[in-house]
Amino acid sequence: MIRVVLPFHLRNLARVDGEVQLEVAGPATLGAVLDALEARYPVLCGTIRDHGTLQRRPFVRFFACKEDFSFEPPETRLPAEIVSGAEPFLIVGAMAGG
Amino acid sequence: MSTIRVLVGTKKGAFLLTADGQRKNWKVSGPHFAGWEIYHVKGSPADPNRIYASQTSGWFGQIIQRSDDGGLTWNTPGSSPEELKGPDGFPKGESNKFVYSGEVGTHKWYDGTQHPWEFKRVWHVEPSLTAPDTAYAGVEDAAIFKTTDGGKTWRELPGLRQAKGHLWQPGAGGMAVHTIILDRKNANRIYIAISAAGAFRSDDGGKTWKPVNRGLKSRYELPDPDAEVGHCVHRIAMHPSRPEVLFMQKHWDVLRTDNAGEQWREVSGNLPTDFGFPIDVHAHEPETVFVVPIKSDSEHFPPDGKLRVYRSQTGGNEWEPLTEGLPQQDCYVNVLRDAMAVDSLEPCGVYFGTTGGQVYASASGGDSWKAIVRDLPAVYSVEVQTLK
Questions:
Q1: How far is A92 from chain B (nearest CA, A)?
Q2: Which residues of B touch A25 (CB under 8 A)?
Q3: Every domain of chain A and the residues it spans
Q4: Is the CB of A9 less than 8 angstroms away from the CB of B97?
Q5: Are A38 and B91 within 8 A, CB to CB?
Q6: How far apart are CA B269 and CA B316, in angstroms?
Q7: Which of B374, B378, B277, B341 is nearest to B37 (CA)?
Q8: Contact B86/A at CB under 8 A
Q9: Chain B residue closest to A15 (CA)?
Q10: Contacts of B30 (CB under 8 A, 6+ apart)
Q11: How many other C-beta atoms can be found within 10 angstroms of the C-beta atom of residue B353?
Q12: How many beta-carbon pairs below 8 A join chains A and B?
């Protein structure tokens, strides 16, 4: 079971309170986790990745085990701690200055 | 007794303001979608309980929200898992999917080169006059989309971008379809306006479009002041009883046409400045028009720090300032293009919102004003529903 932490606005949009827990079929890659998340919460389609290109939206970041996975390709396998559920996979809205 | 519902889109959420027909005591509901930019909220004329909202974010993109109970509850259209499962088992999730039709194409970029169209957000949602499930969306980069299933899916009407789209160029605020006007007497006729491309008209339900900018002059914005496209039209308004008469607030200049946009003429008359954003028409007097003059394109606030609505009861040229109840010193707010609306009670109610978070209302056709709420986030849009 993979644990995913969504940013505040996407939790509201998906109407979830805390972490999301996902079953991912096959290898737990970055792309597979996002596919599973959007399958479970279709309202999130287009909010994390572009609808057409599936490219990460510019101000969304992916963190796992204190590493930044934002620039990794979708076939990148996530760390064992994420796959086991020991650590959460973080989807983060980039900081806004001001 | 009638009820008035004012739908307010702001930089940080949507608000619904309601009052009875006296329009004295207002109840404020919100923020809905707190923290999100709400570019526009508008109810269906065919079913007032059906309201569409454009919710957008620089982080998370575009969301379309819909209420079927007058704004008490909201949902992204068709987003239940049962509705979204396609035949291959994957989610469709298309209520916020705005994808340009066919070849994306290019438009003029700031440096004069051609630049591909890129969807950014929905500026304006215009529900059909007759079918609650049908609505049009004006988007940035400029294009028009249509839904016929209550917002579950959106399809571009690509003929608009064929109307010399390669010559359109964004202004400082982007390049968006911000005005959509449906003709009550001719179901096939639609007007739209784009900053910075101009006004366009379709006579076949949105299939094909033509520029309708003859008479517009942009001396300081375009190398050819009389260009067929490229004008920065800020807003167009129509009285439903006279769909061939339109009033326009351009970047500079207030204009009118009496022949459905075939020819425009300036009616700025004695306005203190003819720069501004919104323009609207009195509900019962087709020759009574309201604008909010703004000092200049470099200084987006009222002249002399005095917030004044100007009213013409002669279809333009002769304007009178309306000041009672509006701040007449140290006021430096702006009023954005989609932030003015009228109700259909007698006397006509007029409403506008400011970037300072005030929503002002007049229950006397503009003679006097009152702030019905004053500390909202910057107001992007104001629409009014007159409920029987």
A1: 10
A2: none
A3: 2-93
A4: no
A5: yes
A6: 7
A7: B378
A8: no
A9: B75
A10: B8, B13, B14, B15, B16
A11: 31
A12: 61
Quickly tell me which residue has 């995913």 as its tokens: A4
**Binary contact (A43, B79; C-beta < 8 A):** yes
Residue A46 to residue B93, Cβ atoms within 8 A = yes
| Cα-based angle B56, B62, B66 (whole degrees, multiple of 5) | 85
Tell whether B102 is within 8 A of chain A (Cβ). Answer: no
Of A10, A42, A48, which has the smallest distance from its Cβ to B91's Cβ?
A42
pLDDT score recorded for residue B165: 96
Q: Map out the domains of chain B as residue ranges.
A: 103-372
- What is the ipTM metric for this complex? 0.91
Where are the extended beta strands (E) located within B49-127? 51-57, 61-67, 106-108, 114-116, 121-127
Q: For residue A36, name the pLDDT band (cuts at 50, 70, 90).
A: very high
Predicted TM-score of the model (pTM):
0.95
Cβ contact B324:B366 at 8 Å: no
Residues A7 and A88: beta-carbon distance below 8 Å: no
On whether the A2-93 domain is CATH 3.10.20.30, my answer is yes
Q: Is B349 helix (H, G, I), strand (E, B) or coil?
A: coil
Tokens 């989807």 found at: A91
Residue among B60, B90, B99, B100 with most chain A CBs within 10 A, to mutate: B60
CA–CA distance, B324 with B196 (Å, rounded to integer): 34
B60 to chain A, closest Cα gap in Å: 4
pLDDT band at A91 (very low <50, low <70, confident <90, very high): very high
pLDDT of residue B1: 83
> Residue B38: which H helix or E strand, with range?
strand B37-43
Looking at the complex, does the CB of residue B91 fall below 8 Å from at least one CB of chain A? yes
Mean per-residue pLDDT pooled into runs of 10, chain B (388 residues): 96 98 97 97 98 96 96 88 57 79 92 93 98 98 97 96 95 93 97 96 98 96 93 97 97 98 98 98 98 96 98 98 98 98 98 98 98 97 96
In this structure, whether the domain defined by B103-372 belongs to CATH 3.30.565.10 is answered with no
What confidence tier does A98 reach under pLDDT thresholds 50, 70, 90? low
DSSP state of A3: E
